[in-house]
Write a structure and sequence with these properties.
Two copies of one chain form a homodimer. By secondary structure, chain A is an alpha/beta fold. The first copy, chain A, folds into three domains: 83 residues, Winged helix-like DNA-binding domain superfamily/Winged helix DNA-binding domain (Arc Repressor Mutant, subunit A, Orthogonal Bundle); 100 residues, D-Maltodextrin-Binding Protein, domain 2 (3-Layer(aba) Sandwich), CATH 3.40.190.10; 90 residues, D-Maltodextrin-Binding Protein, domain 2 (3-Layer(aba) Sandwich), CATH 3.40.190.10. The first copy, chain A, is 42% helix and 22% strand. Chain A contains eleven helices and twelve strands. The first copy, chain A, is rod-shaped and about 95 Å long. At the A-B interface, helix 1, helix 3 and helix 4 of A face helix 1, helix 3 and helix 4 of B. Chain A binds a DNA duplex through helix 3.
DNA sequence: CACAGCCGTTAGTTTTTCTAAAGGCTGGTC
DNA sequence: GACCAGCCTTTAGAAAAACTAACGGCTGTG
């Protein structure tokens, strides 16, 4: 027996439900001619007449009724199974550094949840980049000097990483912007990247400076907000606080650093899932950052 | 959620069963590229990865396993329902004249049921041609001067209608074949078509003849078998009795009559049903009739 | 008789499905 | 390391299916 066109069964079930080709066509977003042709071809393929046609619509023949029962059961079975599978799939895990999470993502969480109301987002913070491959609904945002080379990943650069020195607006300081020499006379707040030390070493200044160290960039930034000194951090981490006037920038590295921020996601992303749209949204947010000074 | 392509599920189920795209393609009579594309599109539509691909074939992911289970259940449900429905449909109704039924069809019923062992045949005899359209599993055999003109029917000529005069082999007669003049001196048996009267009128002979009339051609033929006279009937109605030596032909009309025998069936015949094959068988039986004399 | 509402058909367009061909990857063998 | 077999993927183009728009027929109602 020639293979039944299973897609036609969906049309058949809708016609059977409504008893009316035109109404089924409306529901299915098809023309009534398409529905008519579909039913006709299905009848030819099956070798039975499924509907009696009349001026008040159609009614099922006995054979049609038996087809309808089986078809409804089968479609219900599939619908249930696939809705489940589809639903499970609107869950995305975002892997990123804890400071990026708290200083970049959290201030934008309202925007993200507004854009993707049905998204179930898991934010997993890490101190080191993931070593394993990303699953199909995972995104990672990570700094590095080269893009992600994992062949199962797709990768895109989000931004240069440019360092900026920030402090509380109330922090006593002579002028703005400051020269580096003046900066270094002030209490300096640095994170685990030891950015100040690297900066000082790079510029050749002396090393008798007051340094306060924190495990997390975010903590250093919070300390700066608290008036405890000058923090240096990537621009994207402090942008939101600058916008909110909790911080002011007092120096910016004229050269971007060697590192850039990358976003990676699995090549096995599939249609219907918002993962690529989330990637695009994040990309757009970075692109839309106002320039500092 | 975009509608799942149900036909692709059939492909998916076959790949899942074989764990191998190439083998599934072989079974489905598709190229391996077609199967690959089908699975890929299904994954995009569903938003999940269904298979892990490898050098030794494919294996289901957990989501794929869940899809497979639901798909197999649904396809099994449909297969069972539609195989049943297809089977029920081997019921054919044959409409024909009662004499054609008893004198042409009955002697061949063994051949027909041998050829179509699963056929459920209903023979409905009528004295007048059907006025309504034939249903999709109905065949009609009817004499006429023109083919069936009903636009929903298909029609084919089975045979010319040629009249033959027959009697019992034991019937007293001078010789064979007889001239018409001699014939007309004998008791003549005719049916409702009043074929003898028409024949006599057409040839211009006198009309003082002994005529026995019957409601049915078959009854006239049975009377001839009983030795009561000479019956005239279409060749196809007496062929079987001649073959069985119950009758002998003593005259045949040198010209075929204006009427021919036609077979009609519904244009809405559908694939998988034997109706066309039954029509062909009946056609072949008429074509295979041995010439009388 | 006119009209509304239904279904059916046709010709042509659009979309989907498929094939053929080319190519990449993995595991096994020599 | 080279080669091969067997697997899957992708692409371009052809074929088939699906669809639309338009036209038309039929039935029931007022």
């Amino acid at each position: 027996m020639k293979q039944i066109n299973l897609n036609a069964l969906r049309v058949f079930a809708m016609v059977a439900r409504h008893g009316n080709l035109q109404r089924a066509a409306d529901v299915l977003n098809l023309s009534r001619g398409a529905v008519s042709q579909r039913i006709k071809q299905l009848e030819l393929d099956l070798g039975v007449v499924l509907f009696l046609r009349g001026a008040q619509g159609v009614s099922l023949t006995p054979e049609g009724e038996r087809c309808r029962a089986a078809t409804d059961d089968a479609l219900a079975l599939l619908e249930t199974a696939f809705v489940d599978i589809g639903a499970v799939n609107d869950r995305v895990t975002l892997h990123l550094g804890s400071s990026t999470a708290s200083k970049w993502l959290m201030p934008r969480m309202d925007g993200l949840t507004t854009e993707f109301p049905k998204l179930s987002l898991t934010t997993q913070v890490h101190e080191q980049p993931l070593q394993r491959s990303l699953g199909r609904n995972e995104i990672a945002i990570w700094p590095g000097t080269t893009p992600d080379t994992n062949p199962t990943h797709q990768c895109r650069q989000l931004t240069d990483i440019r360092l900026v020195a920030v402090c509380s607006p109330d922090f006593p300081r002579s002028d703005r912007p400051m020269g580096l020499e003046t900066l270094l006379t002030l209490p300096l707040l640095q994170d685990a990247h030891r950015r100040w030390e690297k900066l000082i070493q790079a510029t050749g200044y002396g090393d008798t400076h007051k340094l306060l160290n924190f495990d997390r960039s975010a903590l250093a930034i919070e300390a700066a907000i608290g008036g405890h000194g000058i923090a240096v951090a990537p621009t994207y981490m402090v942008e939101a606080d600058i916008q909110s006037k909790r911080l002011v920038d007092v120096w910016i590295d004229p050269e971007p650093s060697e590192e850039r921020l990358f976003i990676s996601w699995s090549r096995e992303h599939v249609g219907g899932r918002p993962i690529r749209r989330i990637v695009d949204w994040i990309t757009d947010e970075f692109a839309a950052s106002p320039p500092i000074r």
